[in-house]
Amino acid sequence: MNTKIRYAALGFLGVTALYTGVWAYFAPKEWHASFPGFGMSWLPQLGPYNEHLAKDAGAMFLALAVLTAIALRSVRSVRDNRLVQTTGAVWLVFNVLHLSYHMQHLGMYGTRDQILNVVVLTALVLASAVLLVPVKAVRSADSVKSVKSVTTEGDA
């Protein structure tokens, strides 16, 4: 797995978590009224404002942002691949369930918002899934030299 792809996936997930988490936790009423922003509003159609629920969602997204930030530091390490894969698994569980819910409730939105819901939520699922792909061990220059010397000695 390419480390640039892993960085991009974690970056996308982390930015999404921070954007949503900070807004939902620190301005829950505005988040409920205006999420995802950009002149759109997707939450009022799903039910009345609930401060407790909004702040809990914000806290969960902030926790995911912290996990994602920690995993970003381990992207290059083959030894710490489990942390990146665990982060991907956690995000995948959330994102698959989140997408499943919204797929069942698209009828309350107009065409543009239906398409954006499916595209964005599917992209989050894919970004999560990418992190589960194993990383191949990269051989260092020293290990390549030692393999060559063993092969050369064996041929002599």
Provide a short characterization of the protein structure.
The chain crosses the membrane at residues 7-26, 57-75, 82-103, 115-135. With 156 residues, this protein is mainly alpha-helical.
Could you explain the architecture of this structure?
With 156 residues, this protein is an all-alpha fold. The chain has one domain (3-155). Helices cover 71% and strands 3% of the residues. It is built from 6 helices and 2 strands; from the N terminus they run H-H-E-E-H-H-H-H. The chain has helices at 3-26, 28-34, 51-72, 81-103, 111-130, 141-155, and strands at residues 36-37, 40-41. Helix 1 (3-26) packs across helix 5 (111-130) and helix 4 (81-103) runs antiparallel to helix 5. The chain crosses the membrane at residues 7-26, 57-75, 82-103, 115-135. Keywords: Membrane, Transmembrane, Transmembrane helix.
Annotation keywords:
156 residues; mainly alpha; two-stranded antiparallel sheet; globular
Question: What is the strand and helix layout of this fold?
Answer:
Elements: H1 3-26, H2 28-34, E1 36-37, E2 40-41, H3 51-72, H4 81-103, H5 111-130, H6 141-155
Antiparallel strand pairs: 1-2
Domain tally: 1
Order of helices and strands: HHEEHHHH
Strand content: under 5%
N-to-C CA distance = 37 Å
* Cα-atom radius of gyration: 21 Å
Number of helices: 6
| Helical percentage | over 70%
Mean pLDDT across all residues, rounded?
89
Give the strand order, joined by hyphens, for the main sheet. Answer: 1-2
Q: Helices and strands: which structural class?
A: mainly alpha
Count the beta strands: 2
Largest sheet: 2 strands, antiparallel
Low-confidence stretches: none
Shape: globular
